[in-house]
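Q: Predict the bound structure with adenosine-5'-diphosphate.
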Amino acid sequence: MTVAVHLENVHKSYNNIPVVNDLSFTINAGEMFGLLGPNGAGKSTTIRMLTTLTKPTQGQIEVFGYDVVSQPILAKQRLGVVLQAVSVDGDLTVWENMELHARLHHIANPGRQRLIDQWLEYVDLAPRRNSLVKTLSGGMKRRLQIARALLHQPQILFLDEPTVGLDPQTRRRLWEIIRDLNKQGMTMLLTTHYMDEVEYLCDRIGIMDGGKLISLGTLQELRSTHGEGLVIKQVGERWEYVFFPTLEDANSYLNQQENKTGMMVRPSNLEDIFVELTGRKLD
Ligand code: ADP
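A: Predicted complex:
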């Protein structure tokens, strides 16, 4: 199996304060990998290191076999990135943004125009090719960012909170695009706060907290590890959650209780596991 991304004991500190702390994991080619974590967990810093935008303080990172520190150009040719902040130029047209990016990647004509047309068509922006980007909706801008990131035909796409702030219809359209690209063989790493997004899209999930990877696996593996059954009990204004290995175990626990008032049983989901692992503190 081809390894798309490999991190080995990666650390990153800003002003001697560690923000990524001994991170090691591998993403295989073709995988859709979801990176979750509360704000400040170190997800964006990890994406910035993976995409050569910032250097690790310590440790090794490879993208399709290329070291991001010693071979950044070779690594960059293989990766595309869609960052949180909308990075397209509002005063240029859709086509001009694509043209500029393609030229920066030294993509020659006539292939350049063919690729621009192909990807604008793919993200449903062909009819808006001559519109100024500042006149586009948030969802259109995000689709343009994706089209632009695909121009140099990367093998892996990094998406940092790709659907934040978008309405449900637009989110679902982006999910279709992301899923379809993955079906065509594109490896993907995405970060998000939306658990349904991860459950719907991702093959494997890594949960980060305080700069460390605290859990890694498929949704089913995470549920088996942390418990597939959940007993929920309302205590005053609060809800208490107790995990059980299976739904059956949770049900038999409930059946043994003399007073079942305010108690219910259900299968655990990713959000339950996420909150259990990362705590219920608010930031
Ligand atoms: P996440 O994406 O999970 O919310 P980040 O990677 O953005 O987390 O941030 C992790 C921590 O690193 C935060 O405490 C943030 O304040 C800090 N941090 C990120 N970038 C910088 C920087 N350029 N200088 C100093 N601290 C930073």
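A: The chain has a mean pLDDT of 93.
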